User: Fold these one by one.
Assistant:
Number 1:
Amino acid sequence: MRGEMIPSAVALKSKDYHAKGHNSANFRLQYSKMHGRVVIEPIASQLLSGFLKEVALTQLAVLVDTNTRQQCYPLIQSVLPSHHIIEVAAGEEHKNLATCTQIWQQLTDLQFDRHGLVIVIGGGVLGDMGGFCAATYKRGINFILMPTTLLAQVDASVGGKLGIDFNNFKNHIGVFQEPVATLISTQFLATLPHRELRSGFAEIVKHCLIADKSKWEEIAQKDLSDQNWQELIAHSVQIKQQITQADPREKGLRKTLNFGHTLGHAIETFSLGTDHRLFHGEAIAIGMIMESFIAQQKNLITANELEHISQYLISIFGKVHAPFDQNRIIALTMQDKKNKGSKVLMALPQGIGKAIWDVEVSDKEMVEAMGYYQRI
Ligand SMILES: NC(=O)c1ccc[n+]([C@@H]2O[C@H](COP(=O)([O-])OP(=O)(O)OC[C@H]3O[C@@H](n4cnc5c(N)ncnc54)[C@H](O)[C@@H]3O)[C@@H](O)[C@H]2O)c1
Ligand SMILES: [Zn+2]
């Protein structure tokens, strides 16, 4: 069944939102008004200390990976009460049961009780895995996420999806569980490698294309270095919150967040077996170009809109010239979790700022979309 159109995102009003300056007197006021419990503030230590004043703590564990321990933990260390650090190896290859076992073991060794709190300081890998460990330890203890990559701030931080990879299946084991709060500081982005920052930007572009035309027009006039991250993170979080709150279990509307991801995921997976490994956002940028082409072919967007999307994404992400194995990529799209039976179903823009889902797409259309990407 073909889904309905989603409404354009509402205009951002700062009073409705939690992005704010760092006036700590305001913090409690804002905090009590929070819905969705996502707070965005520039200075990480102020953000966290404001939060910690509001909670009664027995035990506190801080989960970091090797990089975030070096780059991010020092920014908040001074405001933390007595705590234990749990450090794990960085990278998607460690988002697995073996690392969970280490985390659960350390919580057990610390005799962590059900009133303890885990603060996860890391990117999407750590947020998904740390949240999963907390949500399952003793049937669930509280955790907060402090996402430290742009991708984690604008995407993984909202929607309550937690989990790990299993036997090469991505996010195969997991649960839905919201953190007590998600605390987002743009300060962490200062140490993030450029390629990681750019990768997260793809999700921001996606949010604009599926839900906010005027924001799309605004960001598309700027290069990566001119973007206002504080504002864009707030905007993306708001869009993702609206969508996930309307459809927490991904029965309909939430599928629009998969725009760019059917072909994008397949290309990402394909690239992992080549010398041109793509970051998630890089593959999603390609997926958005290809899927916009399919949308244009189906008269959902105009040729001008397609050209604008393609030109802008290429200007930011460059063009990948490595050959795509089309048959293999199409075979990979068949494994997409969102398909029904043997049909490939996509979320596609319908005009800019709106999207529809469960649109059936044929192999031929995907081949043509890959051809389009190679021609531009
Ligand atoms: N739960 C969701 O809804 C959701 C949504 C999107 C993605 N994800 C998951 O997110 C994961 C990808 O997340 P990611 O891109 O953040 O990767 P990541 O967590 O592996 O972080 C990327 C790298 O940057 C390092 N790093 C993190 N923050 C840093 C900082 N501030 N300064 C310097 N280095 C830093 C990390 O140690 C790591 O090496 C995937 O596993 C994906 O499945 C989940
Ligand atoms: Zn994504």
Number 2:
Amino acid sequence: MDGSEPLAKKRMVRCPQCGQPALFSSENSARPFCSERCKLLDLGQWANEDYRVPAENQTPALDDVESWESENSD
Ligand SMILES: [Zn+2]
């Protein structure tokens, strides 16, 4: 171990789409994404504006809130 790891020369970034390490070089045509798939997914989300509007299924389930309220109503 002398600190001269070959991988250290490869610049890695975090894929904005899935968070996996992505190779940031001309070898990776999908950079800064880890793959072409993530690149397309990200572009698709921008096109649908899903990026700006939180998905409804990410909000707490209404059933949980209602049961909590009824338990504490009296
Ligand atoms: Zn990815």
Number 3:
Amino acid sequence: MPKLKIDLEVNNRKVSKETDAHKRLLDFLRDDLNLTGAKEGCGAGECGTCSVFVDGKLVKSCLMPVAKAAGTKIETIEGLADPGKLTPMQKAFHKTGASQCGYCIPGMVMAATSALRENPSAGIEEIKERLGGNICRCTGYTKIFEAVELARDVIAGDMPQEALEEDAVGSSYIGHNVRRIDAPSKVSGRLRYAADVKMHDMLQLQVLRSPHPHAKIISIDTSDAEAMEGVVCVLTSDDVPVETDGFGVFVHDQPIMARGKVRHVGEAVAAVAAEDLVTARRAVAKIKVVYEELPGVFDPVEAMKSGAAVVHEYAENNVVKHIPVRKGDVEAGFANADIVLEDDFSTQQVEHAYLEPEAGIAYVDPDDVIVVMSPSQNITHHRHMLAHILGKPINKVRFIMSAVGGGFGGKEDMIYQGMLAIAAIKTNRPVQLNFTREESIIASAKRHPSRVHYKMGLKWNGEITAIQFDMVSDGGAYGMSSEGVMRKAAILSCGPYEVHNLSVDTTAVYTNNTPSGAFRTFGGMQAQFATESMMDMAAEALEMDPFEIRRVNMMKIGSKTHTQHELSAASLDRCLDAAEKESRWEKGTPNVRGDKRSDLGGDDTRAPCTLGARFTNDKHTDNERVV
Ligand code: FES
Ligand code: FES
């Protein structure tokens, strides 16, 4: 690879180095200078995690070729404060609790620092605008904006320095503002995520992924890739013991790499471990796979019909899991109703979009223990599965949970740690795999897209007499957490309401779509969307206030849930009272409210927003909102 000699200044130190000419400034800082505070969240200029100052200007270092940085002065998050110290901005982020997973925070601190350097008295709207190029998936931004305002006021002398220190907690932490103990490493960029860790002699792994949703693998020719200089090994399913290959949280249906056939676009087919990333990528491009395409199935309802393509031979009807719940007499409940409502609800696939793409390292330690370090949300389970697949005793497999740069359930499945482990065993060297953003989106599990057919019977007073709830969810190509998601959806299906007669079915179905898995609420969100929509529609049909119909049906102490759990505590009444009061709810049926509502647009009401448009906080009509 062509080399480039570069001279520049980084964090007040002269740097003179020879580097690869193709590198971006971000790679140079991270790989050549070990300054890993700048992160790669997207590699496309969208997220801001890679932000640094170049000659005093905030720049996304993933977009800047290293050659263009020659002769410049670079400032990274590591250079903002003296070693062991924090700037007022970093202290303010610590004070307000602005960092959660922390992956976005170095970039956020750089953007916030830039905002106040450009305008030390920036108001909140300007601060928001100046931070507009930085994405956070955890905090909801409020604490970040509070931090910037706090730092601004302290720097300007409008607030004392002590405002940045921890509040006194006295003899109890309860009711006090307590700072996170892990925040200093996050606001200073010192915390190392898996992609930030470097080991001596470490190889880089890259993965060949399926372009087809459903196809037989006729042959894989790795000879050209193996012959390349710098390639240390190529992996396929032949490197995994056939008898034990297969992982999954509930059903072990997913091979470490596709075995015999691929079941979704993006499935891992082969992998290359090489001396460097570029060689690994080039070698992956040289692997030749002959596929025979198979008919695919992409709709979960169609997938259950006879004659549909079968995704896994063990499940001829493509059902991953069906959870039925029955209580009382549903037919009698509907017969006893004054009104029966029926409708369909659907929710879409959702990507977790955690800021930290998947990453990991595996190595064999001096005691022959295979060690895997990754931001896994389920390491004990992964450890047991990997030990089984490798045929090793559990004490010869170790998982280390690295800092998780956001997961939201999406890092519960072992979709790459097995490949890393096998590569490390095969090469007897540390091996690292860092996903690109595109790879993360194509290969990781998503929220289950679901369809619910809902039937609800009610008395004129709003009392629910019966519910029939039928949910079909697209589980995608592998089982992953589908079984747990279906259980939770079934348990939460009818909301916090006491229903004496109900019939609930939740079913996850295999298709050739990207696998579905765990995501915040684990199926509860899809179920609640249908139930709460139905409650509002029922309120409208019965001309009741939406709060009142919920009070009529809410569970109380002594109520039995539809899974026969008798409640010894219940607080929905207090939640409803508080929500009604704080929102200044204007009573009425949903269909008489419309434009006449007076409970929106108050001083403490958050203005609505949409992607790409900003709304004013003023009271507004629909036609006047966008500015
Ligand atoms: S903007 Fe550079 S990594 Fe996202
Ligand atoms: S704290 Fe911002 S992405 Fe997690």
Number 4:
Amino acid sequence: MSGTSNTTEGLYAAAKNVVADLASKLSSNSKIVTEQDAEFKVLHERWTNIGKKTPAAIVAVATEADVQETVKLCVAHGVEFVPKSGGHSLWSTIGAEGIIIDLTAFNAVVVDKEARTVTVSGGSQIKDAVAPLYKAGLCAPFGTANTVGSVAQAVNGGLTIFSGILGQTSDAILSARLVTAAGDLITVSATSHPELLYAIKGAGTYFGLITSLTFRASPLSVLNSPDGTIWKTAAPFPAARIGELISALAPLAASPEPRAAGAMVITKSPHGDGSTIVLASLIFFGSSEDANAHFAPVKALGPFVWGEKRVSYANINDDFDPFCVTGGFKRHIVAGVPRVPGEPAVWEAEVKAYESFIEKEGAQAARSMACLMYVGKGEAGRWEESAYGHRNVAAWIEAVCWYTEEKSYEAAWEWQVEALRIVTERYEVGETETFQNSQRETPIESRFPGEGRLEKLKTLKREWDPKGVFTDVLL
Ligand SMILES: Cc1cc2nc3c(=O)[nH]c(=O)nc-3n(C[C@H](O)[C@H](O)[C@H](O)COP(=O)(O)OP(=O)(O)OC[C@H]3O[C@@H](n4cnc5c(N)ncnc54)[C@H](O)[C@@H]3O)c2cc1C
């Protein structure tokens, strides 16, 4: 380390030295901003203000060379850094001892129609990739949020509504370029460092700063519609009917139908009348007739509205935009369970817990929600083994808090823990899994389950990042 010490002042000074050194080394489109600069506020915005810190500087890189230079200099000076792309996680923030490498301007997307691939730069968001893919008559299994970083979502496993047909997002990764902890820029593929390809498909952010990812793309026809559209509905019911809804939905969620995905969401009515509703948010890759036949048991319950529509692949995430906005205090935690929890009493208890949280914290917390989600499974063994270890999850239980008054922190956390407990206590210890795109405080075995997976990843981590430049997770 040059001129630093382990004192707080030493660390702050080291970060400042790196920033000063970088100024002359980065490309003309890059930017370095500190709290004093007008642009800082915008670049510092995040999906959630929970845990938000103020870094020594934000280095907004524009090229692969910028990324490599910044990582090398930080490593050489012993300065901590965090990459930030979509800013939707709790982890891309750091205090005055470190810097944020902001990748948002580094967002090129190249679709190769002939080779059926899409290559995204390290900071591109899901919406940047989906639109040009659709234009080329192709699709890839990205996540359900336009502004989430396409790299971070994919390399942390990548839950997706497309999984029954196309696998998890990480299953579609063909290759990557990344800057290692040693500052080298390497290509990772089936023929170049193949052992790292395993790691990148589920634990990628712990092994390097990924400057680009290439995904397999598939013709839109795999979506089982002639025009690249997908069938969707959002059918609301009064919360008092949750027992009937879960009784109709659970057998569908447990069925092996790869064309369907769905969620059951407990939240407050968007009409602001204070009532709690339960929403069946359903997706089907196929004709509207087949979709209606598949979901007939839900439709037969008579929701307020059935609200079905067909949405193009390019716009599949648009309904979710209101949930992607920056600011406020939000956090999602999830638990994966091996059997769909279909007992009405469990979900009636969920509604009760949700209502007592909102009653206590008031309308400013009313956009919080508790959900059951399931995605198509696809046939076992179809996808290569990788760091993603959640193939046995039948359904995910999610609790999302969203409040605007910071004082609600404790109450929100207590409710979230309780919301997961209500469902997961029915399973044996070790049967419940957690997802590292959502939480990173849970036991690591629950994030990388499966025989030999964790050991293999730990061995790779010791080889590629022994000092924990990209966090000490897996060390
Ligand atoms: C509204 C919403 C919807 C979501 N939907 C889905 C979904 O459908 N499927 C799913 O799987 N997950 C989903 N998630 C979870 C989401 O994928 C993770 O939170 C993801 O980490 C966010 O990525 P980001 O780039 O937006 O966030 P960031 O906070 O910018 O980055 C997330 C993590 O990745 C690191 N990172 C970012 N870019 C790089 C890079 N190029 N190289 C190396 N490390 C990098 C950051 O340091 C941080 O640790 C959703 C989250 C939200 C808030």
